[in-house]
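Appendix B, record 7
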Amino acid sequence: MRLRVCLFLAVAAFVVAIDPAGGRGQDSAPAESNDEETKGTEIGIRFTPEIAAAIATRSISQMKPRYDLDDGQAEEMKEIIQRRLMKFAQENAVLNRDMIELMMATMIENDGRFPKEEAKKFAELAQRFTPKFKELITHTSAEIGMKMNVTQRLKYTADVGIFAAGFVIFENRMKRWEEGKIGDYANPFFDPADKDPSKVESEPRDPNESEEHRKARKEVEAWLGGQMNPDERWQEYLDHTTVYYGFTETQKTSAAAILKECRERAKAIKTPEWQAAVKENRIIRRLTMGTAEEVSGGPWMVAIEEAFERLMKPMRDLNDEFRRRLNDLPDSTQRATAREAVRKTLAKKGVKQLPI
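Structure tokens (predicted):
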């Protein structure tokens, strides 16, 4: 997603979880222990005007080249973002603070996961948070749009629409969680059930699988897909390469043929047996990490990693070949034009000479 301002606003929404006044406020989290050694701190990190200004400055630095803003527009929009963020912080500090306190404690204790009860509590808070956050995005975007010309506004509006569509995914996830439809690897920012809600319920427990092995397996399954399936990102790489070099129709046809061939070869590599072997290797590695140091940091772990590299080599080699063959398609003029465009872009950021 290329809508930088909304990404920074999304980050800011959780940054402002801390009470801007530095205290706990009236609409507080549940009462804590009176024991001085175990009660929560009274003063924490505040969301200050300086933090809001930093977020606004960073947002505008990304927006300026994207929408071809002049210096006057950039300054006005930075003020809008800073002002809106501070207003949001002041009005929603307690709610957002409670969300992030719950999120931090839960994810630290559970290796990034949300057990069912904690997920439901987070979803209940999120259901109060989402309309307030959408209001922030709507008002900020509208005010920024008023500072743009027609061409800039059309592009910006399209980007805001992309962000809004992505936020709907988060809303739907929280609705599922509030209803108790929570999978084994629940996470506020990523949930495999987004792609297939029918698989949201926890799988039946295998009485022959230990809890430690099950936990390691679920963690491996949650992140391993990207490692085993670089081909799922090939179309995106092809699209970027096409624009970068300005491919002709003939080159586009050749690129499509390369994609098709490599996908067929990837399918031949990724047999069920291969996928099972890769997954089992990573599960064993995960379980090994919890053993004695002479095992987790010695020859056994090296052997596990070497076996993983051997398993992954055919897919990694094919991934490299796919990208190399696409990069071989442009002629010298296209290469020079693309490189010059990169040089000019980086020169504006202070790069005097390209290293490659």
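Remarks on this record: The chain has a mean pLDDT of 83. The radius of gyration is 25 Å.
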